[in-house]
Design a protein that fits this description.
Layout: E1 3-8, H1 13-23, E2 28-38, E3 43-44, H2 51-61, E4 64-70, H3 76-92, E5 97-99, H4 106-117, E6 122-124, H5 132-141, E7 145-152, H6 167-172, E8 186-192, E9 202-211, E10 232-240
């Protein structure tokens, strides 16, 4: 009997790779996508993608989309409360696990698993500890396509946002940047590939800079001399075509 799973969908390339693996695994039935969105802005949290394009992704994939809306600048408590309510509702419908596209952030995985355990669910991580080079090779061999929708100014500058995620983009990354952006250096919007029944159509809009109220400390475990303190993020507004 297949295990019923909800996929925590960011809309980016790692989510697309992980979902592709999960859909091909006969042990699991993916029943829905789950995404946290900024309610006032009607955009995907952190990625800044419009909810309309998120919905277009789900339609192209052919899966139900569950949206958890949080307020602007939502606290961790608000996020956990609203996410738990949605997951408990899904759990009552027989969904016993939540899947993620995380690759190697141990603290993040432990935090996710701890929160899931409190509501009787477990985490699934289809691309966990995968070699980044192998993941990128898989991404291109499977003919996935994505565009960079957000970058952190701790790592990259304005010129890198709004570009296709391709070999040219990868070659332009500084040596200190993870090629999958796992440390939050950049985020992407996946619009084509084997999980999509048709490509998601969009247009490139304006670039927008949003400063942080507080800078991120470099005391974290991934701090390196090459990294600056994050002062904000560049977003590229993707418009439904």
């Amino acid at each position: 009997m297949q295990q019923r799973v909800v996929f925590c969908w960011s809309g980016g390339k790692d989510s697309a790779l992980a979902l592709n693996r999960l859909l091909r695994d006969e042990r699991y039935e993916v029943v829905a996508l789950l995404t946290t969105c900024n309610e006032p802005l009607q955009r995907v949290c952190m990625h800044g993608v419009r909810v309309a394009l998120l919905e277009a992704q789900a339609e192209a994939i052919g899966l139900t989309l569950r949206k958890v809306f949080v307020t602007e600048g939502a606290s961790n408590e608000e996020y956990l409360e609203k996410m738990a309510a949605c997951l408990m509702e899904l759990n009552a419908l027989g969904v016993s696990a939540c899947a993620f596209g995380d690759i190697f952030l141990e603290d993040l995985r432990a935090w996710r698993e701890q929160n899931l355990a409190q509501i009787g669910m477990r985490g699934i991580f289809p691309i966990w500890k995968a070699d980044p080079s192998a993941l990128l090779r898989e991404f291109f061999e499977q003919r996935f396509e994505s565009v960079v929708c957000c970058i952190s100014d701790a790592w990259l500058d304005e010129s890198m946002v709004g570009r296709r995620f391709d070999q040219t983009f990868l070659h332009a990354l500084p040596a200190a940047v993870d090629p999958c952006g796992e440390n939050g250096e950049f985020h992407s919007f996946a619009f084509a590939g084997p999980i999509f029944r048709q490509s998601v159509r969009f247009e490139i809009g304006a670039k927008l800079y949003r400063p942080l109220e507080q800078t991120i400390s470099d005391s974290s475990s991934d701090a390196r001399p090459e990294r600056r303190a994050t002062r904000g993020f560049w977003f590229c507004d993707l418009l439904p075509a």
